[in-house]
Amino acid sequence: MGTRDGIVKYDCGEGQKIFNGKEFHPSSTEEILDKQLIESFFVTYTEKECLKRGTKLSDDNYQICWCEIIKLSSEGFNENKCQPYRTSTFQERLKKEMNKVQIKGSKAEKKCTCSINKSKTTKGYFNSITGEVKVELNK
């Protein structure tokens, strides 16, 4: 689910509600970070827009990544998406994602380029066939 206008419709059992991100102005540092991370999931970005958002994060323990998932078998489609990750557990999360792909019997490769702040980028990678997972920090 993606949106260009910042509006998300949801239903948690009490009927449909609408959240408009443009009208939400967080006041605490925790709410500001939450909004930054949530927007990377629900707003449709280009690679450039996605990585630019990572340079503006208010907490260096998080990063915004542009990830490409490449299907190495005939089922499914390749996809690109903007995703937030905690910097300190990035490699562990990639490993878990790879394990899910392997359990399903699928074959895929994931390549991520992430921005942490203005001076740092990270690259992450997994291949479900070889079992390789790696993360490298670039300064």
Outline the secondary-structure elements.
Blueprint: E1 7-11, E2 16-20, H1 29-42, H2 47-54, E3 62-71, E4 79-86, H3 90-103, E5 108-117, E6 120-127, E7 132-138
Antiparallel strand pairs: 1-2, 3-4, 3-5, 5-6, 6-7
CA-based shape: globular
The structure class reads: alpha+beta
Distance from first to last alpha carbon: 33 Å
Q: Mean pLDDT, as a whole number? A: 82
- Helical fraction equals 25-40%
- Please give the count of helices: 3
Q: Hey, roughly how much beta strand do the residues contain? A: 35-45%
Describe the protein's architecture and organization.
The protein has 139 residues and is α+β, with helices and mostly antiparallel strands. It has one domain. 26% of the residues lie in helices and 38% in strands. It contains three helices and seven strands, in the order E-E-H-H-E-E-H-E-E-E. The strands form two sheets. A five-stranded antiparallel beta sheet has the order 4-3-5-6-7, sandwiched between helices. Strands 1-2 form a two-stranded antiparallel ribbon.
Summary of the model, kept short:
The chain has 139 residues and is α+β, with helices and mostly antiparallel strands. It has helices at residues 29-42, 47-54, 90-103; strands at 7-11, 16-20, 62-71, 79-86, 108-117, 120-127, 132-138.
